[in-house]
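As a warm-up, study this chain.
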Amino acid sequence: MNRYTDEMKLYLFDIAHGNLSEENVLKGFIQHYVLQGEAVDKVVDDIVYHTNYGQQGVIIAKENIIKALNNIIHN
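Now compare it with the structure written out below.
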């Protein structure tokens, strides 16, 4: 099965560009990564190896995921 569907590609674009609400960051992360047995590092790998969003895209995506997860834990 190909993990890199159009929906996942759109998720990677949006998370790397900071276009998602915190709720949608978590929903996409759970759908495309957690349920596939993956973690935050796989998002980084996917951005690096399957997009051209660069280091800034990686930083934005990782910050958004970690922020959303921390907010769920603390609220």
